[in-house]
Amino acid sequence: MKRTTRRTVLRGEKRVKSSRRGASGPRVSTPRTLRGSRTVRTRVSATVRTADPARTARVLPASLISETVAALCKKMAVDLSPGYLDAMRKAVSLERSETGIVVLNTLLRNAELAKTEGLPTCQDTGVTIVHVKIGSEVRVEGATLEDAVNAGVRRGYEEGYLRMSVVGDPLLQRVNTKTNTPAVVHYEFVAGDRIWIRVMEKGTGAENMSQLKMLTPAAGKEGVRDFVMKVVDEAGPNACPPLIVGVGIGGTFDQVGWLAKQAVMRPMGAKNADPKYAAMEEDLLKSVNTVGSGPQGLGGLVTALEVRVEVAPCHIGALPVAVNLECHAHRVQEVTL
């Protein structure tokens, strides 16, 4: 009897070039590139056969995650988010206040010098916010994912000579951890064999001016708009405008703040995927820019560069709204491993 051999193609072995972002993209072995940055060389991960011969598990060393997070932390402190400076230059053309124009040009010069000299754009290098999407067919080896992320934050802040701004206890013993850890880490579990990481260095000036309110459904769209304008108006110069305004709507008390933060962490120019909410973002931006705070709160037309809205399902009797403000030192970077 003639024996035949059947070749089984393991899922994930076929390598395809793709520009798709996110944890579910195809696995490639090319050098990884930080969004908006120079190419960063990293070690290629291994593919391990599981007990089921029809499946594979991609293994990422924890050290690779730590190296990546460290590189992101150091880069964003001196090089603002991709597209942000273009938005600032556009703001100069829109501003009518002479003082506002001087302020915007000064902020642009500050950002350019920071990148050229390799010095932080702002002395407040913030709390590190990390959003991670983890593929179901990848595992981290050598440490837990959270330990790997915190090791990267600690290394990035030490090597970048960035200010350590985290205290271990918020009230009774406000002692600096001297590592800028723990980071605030949010997880999503998705299909695929990739890990997507977006990191933000969030200063506290604008964070302190952020607010959350549990509206009733009767408040409607007007109630949301009025609350957003109230928060921006009360922030004045303390949030260091021009701002990015993140608005979370729906969910629950604990969820709506994260929605607002996700909105702030979006890439520059990215609109809500729902055309109705994208239109609401434009309407809110026009409303916010009638407040008159202007650049650095010294008066003018450009109080905010963008208003972004994220939504989630909520209870029939609730309308949670959170407004998270972001200052002119907008520092967000992302990478897919």
Strand content: 15-25%
What is the H/E string?
EEEEHHHEEHEEHEHEHHEEE
- Outline the biggest β-sheet: 4 strands, mixed
- Give the uncertain stretches in residue-range form: 1-44
Number of domains: 2
**Class derived from helix and strand content:** alpha/beta
Q: Which oligomeric form is depicted?
A: single chain
Find the count of extended strands (DSSP E, 2+ residues): 13
Separate helix tally: 8
| Widest β-sheet, arrangement of strands | 7-5-8-13
- Shape field: globular
Overall pLDDT confidence? 88
CA-to-CA gap between the ends?
47 Å
As a whole number of angstroms, the C-alpha radius of gyration is 22 Å
Helix content: 25-40%
Structure summarized in a few sentences:
The chain is built from eight helices and 13 strands.
Could you characterize what this model shows?
The chain has helices at 62-78, 84-94, 98-117, 145-159, 204-207, 220-235, 253-265, 275-288; strands spanning 32-33, 39-40, 46-49, 56-61, 127-135, 138-141, 184-190, 195-202, 211-215, 243-251, 304-314, 319-326, 332-336. The protein is of the alpha/beta class and 337 residues long. It folds into two domains: 32-76 and 124-202, no CATH class; 81-118 and 203-331, no CATH class. A four-stranded mixed beta sheet has the order 7-5-8-13, with helices on one face. It has a four-stranded mixed beta sheet with strand order 9-12-10-11, sandwiched between helices. A hairpin with a 6-residue loop joins strand 3 and strand 4. The protein is globular. Mean pLDDT is 88; it is low at 1-44.
